Sequence to fold (412 residues):
Amino acid sequence: MRKFFLALVAAALGSLALAQSGRLEIFSWWAGDEGPALEALINLYKQRHPNVTVENATVTGGAGVNARAVLKTRMLGGDPPDSFQIHAGQALISTWVVADRMEDLTPLFTQEGWMNRFPRGLLDMISYRGRIYSVPVNIHRSNVMWFVPSRLREWGVQPPRTWAEFLTVCRTLQGRGLEAPLALGENWTQQHLWESVALGVLGAADYANLWNGRLRFNDPKVIEVWNTFGRVLDCANRDAAGLSWQHAVDRVLEGRAAFNIMGDWAAGYMTTTKRLRPGEGFGWAPSPGTAGVFMMLSDSFGLPKGVKNRANAVNWLRLLGSREGQDTFNPLKGSIPARTDGDPARYNAYLQSAMRDWRTNRIVGSLVHGAVAPEAFQSQFGTVLEIFLSARNAQAAGNAAQAIATQVRLGQ
Fold:
């Protein structure tokens, strides 16, 4: 018995030694302005595991679109990265989890005591058939309207609370020579705008009903979403397709536009890259019509089956889920901890306000960022948007979206 116990101890120590050397490949789309937050995590990992060589395999562009394409090739080709970034929810569940390509992380959550550190609703979102498959490192808010307070005072307008008010303010600003009051970027940012318009027009209950199948996309309520979206687009810049989300934010900061609807990674960009103070250099409000509702998304990392450096990858996940890891990463990223015990003193005024809203608002998930719909629907929604942009036909867009929802059995 003693020999058996010593053998177990030796095996455990051997595994620990392996976990402290070798390589670790981290696959993500965090680059440029979001890169410092990832680098801070990597540096923290290296402090804990100095003999591990970390490869930061970042694929830039398209809010993860390019990275997901590369990831698909690698996963199908039998060459998975040790751990990869993916939006929590259906972005992972409907792809690699149902395909049986991911390890069950429930034991890790139990060992680390995380079951009581992450909200139940978030745990449900990252679970499939009762098992947990990713570690959420943060929470972002999608439905945020950004502006510069001093500019609005100069123009004599207030942040609009509804889309009807937004259109009125838009006309006022256009009458004063601001041709495009709304700064907009490439295709995915337009989809991002659409989901905020949908939430503002439908309300939280009917917005949720879109994804559970109780509200059809060609219902008159949803057709009105498209009609409102079209009127909002009339307030935007015509060169949107050629702009990144950062360039769209820049137009607001430069006074070339009054508003931008973007997730709160924009706060990270404005504080970390632009060195602006929240509440002074930039201001924020819920996107019109969405006060009291927090449209969320979460970046998470999973563990593919058969990776080359499994022990190091598990230690990476262990760091991501820790309070220290989350409080190191999120202040730089412009997001809040997925854990419920983050230290508010580490966060700026915007992020503290988001932490308060996270605790008190009604929570809904983002379409564009992978929380509420399977990838099969999300990936085709861009085509629906193109149909609308080409003809501005709300009914045609609604019919196209419903056809895709039926095809992929959305909500079933």
